[in-house]
Specification:
- The structure is a single chain.
- This protein is α+β, with helices and mostly antiparallel strands and 134 residues long.
- The chain has two domains: 32 residues, no CATH class; 95 residues, Arc Repressor Mutant, subunit A, CATH 1.10.10.
- Helices cover 34% and strands 16% of the residues.
- The strands form three sheets. A three-stranded antiparallel beta sheet has the order 5-7-6. The chain has a two-stranded antiparallel ribbon with strand order 1-2.
- Helix 2 crosses helix 4.
- The longest helix is centred in the middle third of the chain and has 15 residues.
């Protein structure tokens, strides 16, 4: 139960956890997942990753983080949190630059909102499928 002072809930009394199944924050789950059991859900299109790897800066790090969140949310469109980029060793400024570079390369679409996390859509059709060409 949250602690309250004179009927108000104190900020330190409320802790929210990321719920991967609903892609929202909510009450913490009783079972915590260790870092060793986390994974990136595939398949990942290799041509898409190769184009991201050719971009400057931390674009590839952010690209891997995008695919990680996409797998958690089971969606190509999601809110990309600053904490996810930090987990991949990317600063907020480098994240902004990387998203700009990925967007310029046509790999993602980014909707930026002042004071909120950007909404990212992974554009899988941006890279042609090698099997379809064969």
């Amino acid at each position: 139960m949250a602690k309250s002072i004179m009927g108000r809930v104190t900020p330190d009394a409320v802790r929210l956890a990321w719920n991967a199944s609903t892609c929202t924050y909510g009450p913490p789950l009783s079972v915590q997942v260790s870092a060793a059991t986390r994974f990136i859900k595939g398949p990942l299109p290799l041509p898409w990753l190769q184009r991201a790897a050719a971009l400057p800066g931390k674009a590839f790090h952010v690209a891997v983080g995008l695919w990680y969140v996409s797998g958690l949310c089971r969606s190509d469109t999601f809110s990309f949190k600053r904490s996810v980029a930090a987990d991949f060793g990317v600063s907020p400024d480098a994240t902004y630059d990387a998203l700009t570079n990925l967007e310029a390369a046509g790999l993602v679409s980014v909707a930026r909102h002042r004071g909120r996390s950007p909404t990212v859509t992974i554009l899988k059709a941006a890279v042609p499928n090698d099997r379809a060409a064969a």
